Amino acid sequence: MLDGRRIGIVEDDAVMGDALAECFRQRGAEVGLWRKGSDALTGIRKFAPELVVCDIRLPDLSGEQIFAALNADLPAVPFLFITGHGRIDEAVRLIRLGAGDYITKPFEIPPFLERVRELLPTGAPARRDVLGRSPAIRAVEATLTRVAAIRSTVLLLGETGSGKEVAARFLHDTGRPGTPFVAVNCAAFPPDLLESELFGHERGAFTGAAGRHIGHAERAGDGTLFLDEIAELRPALQAKLLRLLDERRFTRIGGDRPLQFSARVVAATNADLARRVEKGDFRQDLLFRLDVVSIRIPPLRDRTEDILPLMERFMSQYCREFGTSIRRFEPAAVTAALRHTWPGNVRELRNRVERAVALSESPVLAVADLFPSEGAEDAAESVTRNLSAVRAAAEREEISGALAASGGRILAAAKQLGISRTTLWKKMRRLNLRGSALP
Question: I want to staple 406 with a disulfide (CB 3.0 to 4.6 A). Which of 134, 259, 413, 428 is the partner?
Answer without folding.
Answer: 413
